[in-house]
Design brief:
homodimer, Arc Repressor Mutant, subunit A, 11% strand, DNA-binding
DNA sequence: CTTTTTAGTTAAGCGGGCTTAACTTTATAC
DNA sequence: GTATAAAGTTAAGCCCGCTTAACTAAAAAG
């Protein structure tokens, strides 16, 4: 076996385990808040990136403006999102999280990482350092990949 | 900053990048085959675990038998899955992938890992070895966590 | 042998996540 | 100033992924 395919095998094994674990926990949390995964994803994006326009939601999630509008409707109605006029362009809207929305995202994020935190406690300090270094390598590599594909 | 929270930070950064990247690519592939994510997940499970009963689908995905039945209906109608009587219990059914289904899963799996393969090519051999080792550590740790929580 | 349980199916209903079509308001181009 | 494009919204429609209810056939229990 080549080194390259050993790498691929390690990554794939991790992906399989990780994806299943992440998705089910995440889905349950969203459900417990009375939101769907898609609705929750929008809250997450707002949290990470600050103010968002409706167009950006539409582009980011690769859905029509109509779908975006209706999706955001539900979040606004539930008090998680504020939808305000953009002062720089009266046609556009700016979306921001409310305190309620921000609180929810933070709770959801904690829930999301809980099992990983537990995982870290099973590792020795040396193991943690190795993993930390490795994941930083990977994270940087992904960012470089993305920068090449879509220069801001 | 403690070593433990440095670890957590590395893992979280990776998770953020990875989840988004994985999910969108995966979703697009499923869509391009005219299937939904859920339908595809069932095919994946069949591929990994061999023959499955309807009850097992229902349990594994935490849905009612009715939902499982209807979901599998679509896969059978599209020729991806065979649904046959279980010789050991005439009430039960056994599900298996058809050749068509197996082919689809293999193509989907390749698609799923493509971006990760590209990522590996951006790394040096040394970096790859570090990542490989680290992910093996993590994968084993998860499996231990799961063994504790639900002893077969 | 009869009763109860199990495995699965079908129908109907509901909410979610889209789509297209049609529309209003605002900004941009000429 | 007029025509075009952009930003967003609402309505209607469709498919998906469930749920409950009702049912049949087979197995298990007593």
């Amino acid at each position: 076996m080549t080194k390259s395919s050993q790498f691929n095998q390690s990554v794939r094994a991790w992906m399989d385990v990780f994806m299943h674990r992440s998705m089910s926990g995440w889905k349950q949390f969203a459900k417990s808040c009375g939101l769907s995964m898609t609705q929750f994803s929008i809250l997450i994006q707002l949290h990470h990136r600050g103010a968002f326009s409706m167009s950006e939601v539409s582009e980011r999630f690769e859905i029509t403006p109509a779908a975006a509008s209706q999706l955001v409707d539900k979040l606004v109605q539930n008090g998680f999102v504020l939808r305000e006029e953009d002062p720089k362009d009266r046609r556009a809207k700016l979306l921001n999280l409310t305190d309620k929305g921000r609180d929810l995202v933070q709770r959801g994020t904690q829930e999301r990482y809980r099992w990983v935190d537990a995982l870290g406690e099973k590792l020795s300090a040396e193991e943690r350092a190795k993993v930390s270094e490795a994941l930083n390598i990977m994270t940087e590599a992904v960012k470089e990949l993305e920068a090449v594909q879509s220069p801001a």
